[in-house]
Amino acid sequence: MRVLIVEDEQRLAENLARGLRENAGYAVDIALDGGQGLFLAETSDYDLIILDLMLPKLDGADVLRRLRAAGRTVPVLILTARDETESVIALLNAGADDYVAKPFDLGEFLARAKALIRRGKGRPAPVLRLGGLEINTAQRSVRRHGAAVALTPMEYRVLEYLAHRASEVVSKEELLEHLYDYNWEKFSNVIEVYISGLRRKLDGGPGPKLIQTLRGHGYMLRGEES
Ligand code: CA
Question: What percentage of the chain reaches a pLDDT higher than 70?
């Protein structure tokens, strides 16, 4: 998953980014003003946008309205100061999905961010179950037929993304777009390495394979609920 933080208090932005990377394993981009935030939101495909209200160049409300006017459905979590209640109501009515008031608890912020991403993918439950696979997105742990499976952090991120899009074909380009922030060089062969690691750990036994390759198109996680 990939998150955009639009926040002009650099220290806060970096703390939130660190929390999202370390606690949720998300890729995170930071924009320090509304103009850059809108540009990134329009040119990259994010799974969640964290949006401060008072921003230089273009304020958070304008960023949100322009995104929604352009038909972008990405979940938006508003960061607000305590005295901005009226703006919060206006923003929820303008298409924001949730808000947290500063100063807020990092744990609460992370839980809200994760919940919005799950809901945005149409899978609100924190534990995903499919084909004998169980993914606990709160603990970032995986079980196959009841047995714990040890994955590397990147293998987990690939699997979680595929699971949120189960039964749909996901291209390598989409995986790169959603798993890396813009500072990374993106090489599609790294995805093949993670997929082969996942196959070895999850699809080693007999029976139907969980991860399907559609040559030239991408990958698909079989989506039958177990
Ligand atoms: Ca601000």
Answer: 98
* CA 60 to ligand 1 center in whole angstroms: 9
Residues 79-107: what's their mean pLDDT? Answer: 88
The CA-based diameter of the chain, rounded to the nearest angstrom, is 60
pTM of the model: 0.91
Q: What is the mean pLDDT of residues 149-170?
A: 94
Give me the domains of the chain, ranges plus CATH numbers.
2-120 (3.40.50.2300), 127-221 (1.10.10.10)
* Cα 52 to middle of ligand 1, angstroms: 6
Residue range 29-51, pLDDT digits in tens: 999 999 999 999 999 999 999 99
**Rounded Cα distance, 4 and 116, in Å:** 13
**CA 175 to ligand 1 centroid distance, Å:** 31
With b for 16 or more beta-carbon neighbours within 10 A and e for fewer, the 102-137 pattern comes to: eeeeeeebbebbbbbbbebbebeeeebebbbbbbeb
User: What's residue 182's pLDDT?
Assistant: 80
Q: 222 alpha carbon to ligand 1 midpoint, in Å?
A: 43
